[in-house]
Amino acid sequence: MSGARDKIILVEDNMATLTMGRNMLKTFYEVYPAPSAAKLFEILINVIPDLILMDIEMPEMDGYEAMRRLKADPRFADIPVIFLTAKDDEDSELEGLNLGAVDYCYKPFSAPLLLKRIETHLCMDKQKKELQAGKSVLSEHAGTLAMMVREEAREILKLQNAILTIVTEMMEYRDKSTGGHINRTTLYLRALTEEMVREGVYADETAGWDMDAFWASAQLHDLGKVSVSDVILNKPGKLTAEEYDAIKTHVTAGIDAVERILSLTNEHVFLRHALLTVGTHHEKWDGSGYPIGLKGKNIPLEGRLMAIADVYDALISARPYKKPFAHEDACRIIREGAGKHFDPALVDVFENVRDEFERIAKEAALG
Fold first, then answer.
1. Strand partners, 105
2. Would you list the domain boundaries of the chain?
3. How far apart are CA 23 and CA 31, in angstroms?
4. CATH code for the domain defined by 175-363
5. CATH 3.30.310.50: does it fit domain 7-136?
6. Residues 280-337: tens digit of each pLDDT
7. Residues 359-363: contacts with CB within 8 Å, 24+ apart?
8. 175 and 233 Cβ atoms separated by less than 8 Å
9. DSSP code, position 202
10. Are the C-beta atoms of 36 and 13 separated by less than 8 Å?
11. 67 close to 96: Cβ distance less than 8 angstroms
12. DSSP letters along 259-279, please?
């Protein structure tokens, strides 16, 4: 036999049987004879065997009690144990197997049969350890792969945010009257949504939302303005009806842009949120909004939330055709719009974060 030999501890209080067993096994294995269970535990201090052969009927500590102690100690719990016994009854065998023995051999034992059983159980134990080692390696590889995926996801998110920043800056560069609007509305939206979640409003609807993706998508709510004439966007005065109709086309233009992106890439929750935010933030609770005239809860929640953030910022911001409203006046207008322009439940939520809106407006300098 090449290489290190498997170690077996033979526990037997009958000296004749112990000697015979040792002589039978030493040709194939490294054998450690133990005349008692107490001696077994002394040997275990220095030697961890590959298998234990143990008599059941022993004075002071029998095989069952020794087995209990082995299983209670993490150092020895996985060592396979074959019981040796003169008892020939099912109850004794069942008790031994229930305690964790891998096999049961009756004395006087047949040498060839016992050797074959030892070989079988050693082989099974080695396969078990190899399988566990393989699982450990797979788990390690899986952990490494998961870390790589997370890192790649972070890089994709950084790229997405960088693109969003450039796109929104370009949008605001064209519409000189709304400087900082996109940043502020995104911050308002986050404050409003977080309060909505805290209060449990629309909890079922938002249970599966990726909030980071939703908040990021809000930056695109006016994406379609890139299709509107600079002359109209920057007109220093009130718009005509025709010009206002041209402004309203920014919603459908934004929808078309997001849908084109969706057609060119795999579906992404960010884009799904963006489609609803872009397409419905000008709808009104009473059905008088645009572009479709959706009413009540038929308006996606993304659009109903965005409507409050968008209108608040428009009210407190200076425009070529109006002076900015004071914070209190803007809050009053939103409250009066409950059930008409806005979802009443969300207006109630807004009332609890109105001070946060004011803080955001002051810290994110108004254009």
1. 84
2. 7-136, 175-363
3. 9
4. 1.10.3210.10
5. no
6. 999 999 999 999 999 999 999 999 999 999 999 999 988 777 789 999 999 999 999 9
7. 360/184, 360/187, 360/188, 360/191, 361/184, 361/313, 361/316, 361/327
8. yes
9. T
10. yes
11. yes
12. HHHHHHS---HHHHHHHHHHH
